[in-house]
Design a protein that fits this description.
7 strands, alpha+beta, 3 helices, 4-stranded antiparallel beta sheet, single chain, elongated
Length: 209
């Protein structure tokens, strides 16, 4: 069994497939002849980093206030180390500092992931299958070779990945957040071009963002 081939380790909302008739033509925005080209984009990852920065600023301000209050309690009350109140103050201070550190690490990882997003196409969907930007060069994968196309849950940045498996022992994946198309559009294109054989299965993914 050959090793799996994965996309770059960097870093759009989960959508459940529509029930009903199988589409026979691509949805609007998808070019029937050329297929649907999905490229890398750092926009969503940069937005995530900006959101983390705002939360870090808010957490830091609240943390400083909390530490000042904790310090005041300790200075005026002077609890004994053997008292539960003393350890309550210690626990409060540790929690505050830990929360700030966690947010800071998340921000650093998000910024690093944003800087590592490559330029160019990630994959293309057309009548014949997929063309994935596997390393060292892209590879065409026919519909008859594909076994699954699904979301792969990943807790840490950059988050869940879109994984394509084919030939029983090969796979390629890419973080969903670095793609310029939302999962809903990717799912629609997969169902249209594969004539209903495949969609983007996100049943095992808790949260895209």
């Amino acid at each position: 069994m050959s090793p799996a081939t994965t996309g770059p380790d960097y870093p759009v909302q989960p959508v459940h497939p529509d029930s009903g008739a199988v589409p026979t033509r691509p949805s609007p925005g998808v070019q029937p002849d050329a297929g649907m080209l999905v490229s890398y984009s750092p926009v969503a990852m940069a937005q995530r980093a900006a959101g983390i920065r705002k939360r870090l600023d808010r957490t830091t301000i609240m943390g400083v206030i909390s530490l000042l209050i904790t310090g005041a309690f300790y200075f005026f009350v002077r609890p004994e180390p053997s008292s539960s109140f003393f350890w309550l103050l210690i626990a409060s201070a540790v929690y505050t500092v830990t929360n700030i550190i966690v947010k800071f690490v998340q921000l650093k990882r998000a910024r690093k992931a944003t800087a590592q997003v490559p330029l160019g196409p990630a994959f293309q969907i057309d009548d014949d299958g997929l063309v994935a930007s596997t390393v060292p060069e892209g590879e065409r994968i026919g519909w008859d070779r594909i076994t699954s196309i699904a979301g792969l849950d990943k807790l840490f940045s950059p988050g869940p990945r879109l994984e394509v498996r084919w030939d029983q022992d090969r796979s390629w994946s890419v973080p969903i957040i670095v793609l310029d198309a939302p999962p809903s559009s990717i799912d629609s294109a997969l169902r249209a071009f594969s004539l209903g054989r495949f969609g983007l299965d996100l049943s095992s993914v808790d949260d895209i963002w």
